[in-house]
Amino acid sequence: MFTFYLHIPKTAGETLHRWLNLVYGPEQTLVWNPQSFGLPQIQRELATLLEERPGVQAVAGHFPYGVHKALGDRPHRYVTFLRDPVDRWISERVHHLTKNADDHLLRKSFAELYGDIDLFTLLKSTITDDDDINCQSRLVRRGHSIGSNGLTRGCDLSDDEALARFWFVGRQESLSADCNRLAELLGCEPIPLPESQNVAGLGDIRSALAPEEIQWIEGRNTSDFGLCSKVPISAYCVTPAPAVDRGALVAAILQAALARTSECFLALKADREKAQVIMDHHAALTHLLRLYIET
User: Which of 77, 179, 197, 226 maximizes the CB count within 10 A of its CB?
Assistant: First the structure.
């Protein structure tokens, strides 16, 4: 049976990609993030890829539910993992500030990004068009129906209806235990999880936020909390991150962003306009970080 792993951002997806590669083997695993827009176009894109690689048995990536139509009548199953909405929100904001610093910097002015150098303001600066609201619910509950004009249209399902479409739903907090359960269901021996390569390692950011800041995040993700409540954590496998001073976190994030802008500048040298933007941010970041550390 063909397996689709629907990767919700910041739910240990990179680790799960590599784990699936160990389960199925590199020749039978495809990591794919669609370049097309609209479900019919995405389905055609996948169909083309599978024609080029007919041996693929598992696809992992950031794609919507419904791509299985590219298989025709071939049996299939969907797998996904959820995460505590507050922890996922924080992780994605830090990712944008550090790993995606090039795109982030090009979309925002320096004043918007680092105005008062406050940790929570820094995290919120990465929000674009409310993209941080109920990310998990939007991806899992999104359904598709055929309108009277014959065109595909979106519709939101209930939590129970949406989860019923998935063959397996795990939790990032119990990743190791859930992957062992998944391996058993797939008919194979437990396979140790590969070491995570996409962790910021900045410490426990959540504990550095004020109660009202946590409440603000919770208020934007009420649907995600409802969805996650339907999928209990089987066994906590997450090693607690060390508590970190709020100011130290700001400095660490700025340092990570600074390192990323250096990499981006080298990659963008051929594009003088973008390279100049990166250089300006790099110079301002360097000055800001020096002032911040000195004070």
Answer: 179
Q: Which architecture characterizes domain 2-83+134-185 according to CATH? A: 3-Layer(aba) Sandwich (3.40)
Q: Which of the pair, 263 or 24, is modelled with greater confidence?
A: 24
For β-strands 142-146 and 152-156, DSSP reports them as antiparallel
Q: What is the spatial distance between Cα 101 and Cα 95, in angstroms, rounded to a whole number? A: 8
In the chain the first and final C-alpha atoms are separated, in Å, by 59
Side-chain-facing half-sphere of 121: CA atoms under 13 Å: 10
254-260 contacts, C-beta under 8 A, 24 or more apart: 254/114, 254/285, 254/288, 254/289, 254/292, 255/289, 256/97, 256/98, 256/101, 256/200, 256/202, 257/97, 257/98, 257/101, 257/105, 257/285, 258/282, 258/285, 258/286, 258/289, 260/98, 260/99, 260/101, 260/102
Q: Report whether pLDDT(104) > 60.
A: no
- In the prediction, which pLDDT does 195 show? 77
Q: How many CB atoms lie within 10 A of CB 177?
A: 17
**DSSP string across 201-214:** ---BHHHHS-HHHH
- Provide the β-strand partners of residue 148: none
Residues of the chain with CATH 3.40.50.300: 2-83+134-185
For residues 30 and 85, the answer to whether their CB atoms sit within 8 Å is no
Q: Which regions of the chain does DSSP assign to beta strands (E)?
A: 2-6, 29-31, 58-61, 76-82, 142-146, 152-156, 168-171
- What backbone phi and psi angles, to 5 degrees, belong to 59? -125, 130
Q: From residue 97, how far is each of 104, 121, 252 by CA, in Å?
A: 7, 12, 11
| Confidence (pTM) | 0.81
